[in-house]
Amino acid sequence: MTDNSIRSTGSEAKTGTDLTLRGLKTFVAVEETRTIGGAAERIGSSPSSVSQQITALEQAVGAKLFDRRGRPITLTPAGQVLRRHAHKILETVAEAQTELAELNLTALPKLNLSIIDDFDVSLTPALVSRLQAQFRNCFVSASSGRSDVMVQELVSRRSDIAIAAILPDDTSAYWVTPLLRENYFMICAKGVIDPDQEILPQLSALPCVQFSEETHAGHQITQHLRRVRFTPPRRFAFDASRSVYASVVQSGGWALTSPLNMLDAERFAPYIDVHQMPFPALSRRIWLIARSDELGRLPERLATDCRRIINRQTISRIVEIAPQLVNAIEVLHE
Predict the structure, then answer these.
(1) DSSP state of 310
(2) Which of 77, 132, 147, 300 has the fewest other C-beta atoms within 10 Å?
(3) Strand order of the sheet with strand 161-164?
(4) Closest among 273, 257, 250, 252 to 321, alpha carbons compared
(5) How far apart are CA 75 and CA 140, in angstroms?
C-alpha cells in the first residue's frame, strides 16, 4: 500500500479522486484540532493546503466531511464514518512501517551512539556489547563527552542515538524518553567539614570547586546557588568530573556533584566526605534521544536495556562507593 494507492469506490468512479495517506493524515489533524489553522500547524503545512486536501477527500467520498460554518468546526455524519476508518488505516500503516524498519535493522551496517561521559565506565561498555550481540554485522561506535556536544552530534546526524542530560531545542522531530533522575549532593575533602557545626559558614571559608558553566551540571548548579543567594567566589572550574573531584581533594575544598559524577571519579572516594545538600534540593534527568521513525523500535528497546543496566550495575556500584546515596538516583520509565 503506497501513499496514493487507497482508492475509493462509488462516487470516486465519477471524480477520479484517490483517498491518500496524506489526505487521511490531514483529515485526522483537522478532526482532532477542530481548526484548519491548528491542523496546518500540527502537520507542518499551510491552511490553504489543508483546505485543498479536505476538498479532495470530500470529492473522493462524495460527501461533506466537516461543517465549517461554526467554530470549532465539527464532523458531519460522513466525517464520523471516515473518522473510524482513518484512524484504523493510519495505525495499520504505522505498525507496518515499524516492522519494516526493524526488518531492515538486521542489516544495519553502522550505529553511532553519543553518550555523556558520566556513563563511560558503568553503562557504555555494557550497552555496546549488548548491541553487538544483537546486530552481529553492525559496527557500533560510541562517542563520549558533554551533554551539549552529544546532542549536537545527534542534531547534525553524526550520531543516531544520544544519551544526555539536555534535549534538542526542538524535540518535535525526536523520540525522547527519560532514563533516570539523580539528586545532587555535596562532597568535601576528608575531614574539612565538622558536621556538628553550622555548615554554610564553614563552606564560605573553603575553596569552592565548580563545574564549568559550559557543562549542563555547571550551569544548573551555578543558577541554583544564585537562587539560594549563596555565591562563592569563582576560582576555578572544570569540565570533567574527575578534575572536579581531584581539585576538591588537593585544595581541601568542596563541590556540588551527582551520583554519576561520583561513579566517574570513584578513585577519589577514599579522600572525600559525602554530605547532603546544605541547600534546597536540586536534581537532573538523563534522557535517551533518537530521531523519530528512523530506527523502528530499536531506541525503545535500547532504553529498556539502559534501565536494566543502570538498575543492576550502575546504582549498585554507586551505593557500594557511597551508601549515603542509596536514594539519590532513580530509574525512570516513560
Answers:
(1) I
(2) 77
(3) 139-145, 110-116, 161-164, 283-291, 174-183, 329-331
(4) 273
(5) 50
Q: Which residue has the cell 570533567?
A: 240
Question: pLDDT tens digits for 272-317?
Answer: 999 999 999 999 999 999 999 888 888 998 999 999 999 988 999 9
185-281: what fold?
D-Maltodextrin-Binding Protein; domain 2 (3.40.190)
- What CATH number matches the domain at 108-179+285-320, 3.40.1580.10, 3.40.190.10, 3.30.2420.10, 3.40.50.300? 3.40.190.10
Instruction: Give pLDDT, residue 162.
Output: 97
Omega of the bond prior to 280 within 30 degrees of 0, cis?
Answer: no
In the chain, the DSSP E strands lie at 66-67, 74-75, 110-116, 139-145, 161-164, 174-183, 185-189, 210-211, 237-238, 254-257, 272-275, 283-291, 329-331
Residues composing the chain: 334
Cell of 131: 548491541
Closest to 263 in 3D by CA, of 188, 331, 192, 313 = 313
The cell 460527501 sits on which residue?
A: 63
> Domain residues of the chain, as ranges?
12-104, 108-179+285-320, 185-281
Supply the pLDDT for residue 101. Answer: 61
Output the pLDDT for position 87: 87
Domains 12-104 and 185-281 share a fold: no
- The fold for domain 12-104 equals Arc Repressor Mutant, subunit A (1.10.10)
Regions of the chain with pLDDT less than 70: 1-17, 97-107, 334
Task: Return the DSSP state at 18.
Answer: P
pLDDT of residue 131: 87
Q: What is the pTM of this model?
A: 0.68
